[in-house]
UniProtKB/TrEMBL annotation:
InterPro entries: START-like_dom_sf, START_lipid-bd_dom, START_lipid_transfer. It comes from Globodera rostochiensis (Golden nematode worm). Gene3D superfamilies: 3.30.530.20. This is START domain-containing protein. Residues 47-229 form the START domain. SUPFAM superfamilies: Bet v1-like (SSF55961). GO terms for molecular function: lipid binding. Residues 261-294 are annotated as: Disordered.
Length: 294
C-alpha cells in the first residue's frame, strides 16, 4: 500500500470530509464525515445515470484531477425492510459469507471504540479474475431514522499484502439507510470509490454498474428478509456489532497501523485480455441455479 497514490475526495454541496477519512488514517470519524456521506448519497449533480430498473438506480462519477477511478452509487427502495434490519444485516460478517458470493473471508482485527473497527476482507466470486483483498477501517453511526456505515483502507501489520490476492484500495465506501415514512421500509444507498489494482479490461466498469451492483442490491434485500430465520436456526445471541467487538476482539494498537512499503507483485497482474464472454457464461449459470431454487 505504500506505493498507492492518494485520491482527494471531492466536496459535495461545499461539504468536505475531515482528515479522518484519508487513506490510511486510523481515527474516529467526525460529524462532518457523516454529513459528507449523506450529501454524497443524496446529491446527483455531476453523476451519470448508468442503470435504472424498478426500484434500483446506479450512477457513476469521475473523480477530480487525473485519476481514472470512478465513483459508483447505487440506490434502491426496500419497502418491506426496516432500516434497522438492513443495518444489522450489513454488520453481520458471518451472515455476509452466506448471502454475498463475492466475500470469501472476513477477519475482525480489533476496535478503536464500539463504533469503529478494523477488518480484513478477501473478495472473489468473479472468475477468472484474481481475488482481491482489503484491510478496512469501518465506522458506523445510528441516529434513529438514518444509519451509516463508512469504510476506507488502512494498513495493519498482521495482514500485509500477500501473493495469493491483489491488495486493493478503498478510498471510501458508504452504506446509508433512511427509514421510510411508515417505518416499515427503507431507502438504501451504497457509494464506493475503490482501486482494485492490477490491469483490468475496459468493459468491466460497465459490467459492474449494470450487472454486479444491481444484483448485489437484490441479494441484500433477499438476505434481509431471511435474516430472522437464519438467526433463529443459528440460535444467535444477537449482540450488536459494537458489543461483539468489545467482547471478543482486542483494542487496536496504532503502532501496528503505520503504512509499510510492499513489493506485492500481484498488484501488477495484467488481466486486460479476459474476454467478456467468460463472465457472461458464469452469470447465466448462476441465474439458472437461482431459478431452480425458487
Amino acid at each position: 500500500m505504500g506505493t498507492t497514490t492518494d485520491v482527494t475526495l471531492p466536496p459535495f454541496n461545499a461539504v468536505r470530509p475531515s482528515d479522518a477519512m484519508r487513506l490510511n488514517a486510523v481515527q474516529v470519524l467526525e460529524d462532518v464525515d457523516f454529513h459528507y456521506a449523506k450529501e454524497l448519497c443524496d446529491g446527483h449533480a455531476d453523476w451519470t445515470l448508468a442503470y435504472e430498473r424498478k426500484r434500483t438506480r446506479v450512477w457513476t462519477r469521475r473523480t477530480d484531477g487525473q485519476s481514472p477511478l470512478q465513483m459508483i452509487k447505487t440506490r434502491s427502495e426496500f419497502p418491506d425492510v426496516p432500516a434497522a434490519l438492513c443495518y444489522d444485516v450489513l454488520q453481520d460478517t458471518e451472515y455476509r459469507l452466506k448471502w454475498d458470493k463475492y466475500v470469501q473471508k472476513t477477519v475482525p482485527i480489533g476496535f478503536l471504540n464500539p463504533n469503529n473497527d478494523i477488518c480484513y476482507y478477501a473478495l472473489g466470486g468473479l472468475p477468472p479474475f484474481q481475488s482481491r483483498d482489503f484491510v478496512l477501517l469501518r465506522s458506523w453511526l445510528d441516529v434513529g431514522l438514518e444509519k451509516y456505515i463508512l469504510a476506507h483502507s488502512v494498513w495493519h501489520d498482521k495482514f500485509p499484502p500477500s501473493k495469493t490476492h491483489i491488495r486493493g484500495v478503498v478510498h471510501l465506501t458508504v452504506h446509508f439507510m433512511r427509514s421510510s415514512a411508515d417505518g416499515k421500509g427503507c431507502q438504501f444507498t451504497y457509494v464506493t470509490l475503490a482501486d482494485p489494482k492490477g490491469k483490468l479490461p475496459s468493459w468491466l466498469t460497465n459490467h459492474v454498474t449494470k450487472i454486479v451492483a444491481p444484483k448485489l442490491v437484490k441479494k441484500l434485500h433477499k438476505a434481509c428478509l431471511g435474516y430472522a430465520e437464519w438467526k433463529k436456526r443459528r440460535d444467535c445471541q444477537c449482540l450488536t456489532n459494537g458489543e461483539t467487538l468489545l467482547h471478543d476482539y482486542p483494542r487496536i494498537r496504532l503502532a501496528d497501523c503505520e503504512p509499510k512499503e510492499d513489493n506485492n507483485s500481484a498488484e501488477f497482474v495484467d488481466e486486460t485480455a479476459v474476454p467478456r464472454a467468460l463472465i457472461g457464461e458464469e452469470e447465466e449459470e448462476e441465474d439458472e441455479r437461482e431459478g431452480r431454487e425458487k
